[in-house]
Amino acid sequence: MHMNTQAIASNKEAELDALINVPLDIAQDYSSYTDENRETWRQLFTRLEPVITQYAHPDVKKGIAKLGLSADAVPHLPTISQNLKNATGWQVYVCEGVLDIGILCAGYTKRYFPSTVWLRALKDIDYTPLPDMVHEVVGHLGVLAGSQEYADALHEFGMLAKKFEYDEEILSRMEAIHWFLFEFQLIEHEGKILADGPGLVSSLGEEPYSVESDKPRRHMLRDMTPEQVYRELMDARGYDISEFQKDYFVIPDSKFLLDFVTKYLPELVVSEPS
Known about the structure:
It is a single chain. Helices cover about 55% and strands about 10% of the residues. The chain is an alpha/beta fold. It has a 4-stranded mixed β-sheet with strand order 6-5-8-7. A hairpin with a 2-residue loop joins strand 5 and strand 6. Helix 1 packs across helix 6, helix 5 packs parallel to helix 7 and helix 8 runs parallel beside helix 13. The longest helix has 21 residues. The two termini are about 30 Å apart.
């Protein structure tokens, strides 16, 4: 999910509530999915499963199981939302397009995450420039369902963003932090580095690349002070969302995210990057 760094206007919560209040069985016309849609989902999910098993943190696979996802059916969002709520207390609302950072983070404060109902065409099965249900449901919702600490950290991130809702510069810094620590993060696990970010676990190409390639820089956050973490995050800004990342940040565990966001980020994010 990509964010626009525009100052959050006072009506953002009202805009969010308007989205949340649409019943999911109305927002997602499940009967409208075609045979091609179902085949696209079946092929992509079937291809992603072994990649996730090999390259992603085990919590991701557990989260996907908790959501009840399978290759047999396009995700039914009312069911997915209830399963997500049972897993980590979050729920789903439907939106299309790129969300303003204000609406996105307002949703985080209420433990709501957006999903599109759109699926890429079968001819575009290997790449779509816009997030579709594979990215949103397998990636974001799978990670959210698999780790309570990640889910809590994202909630706290939203709460912090709300405090700076009218400061465009600070929101710009938080966008970069969101990108590297909540969308494309790697994680240590039993002596290995594995994919943990939604943008990675939903990608057939970038997931193995992020773990195996010798091209990107991997920033090992375990060995850094909070100030060093913040400085390296700010230095890595200017990323290209259309390419595989040049920088990946490796968290020691999901508790690191929660501690960083609650204990250190409130003070760090108001400081000028050096």
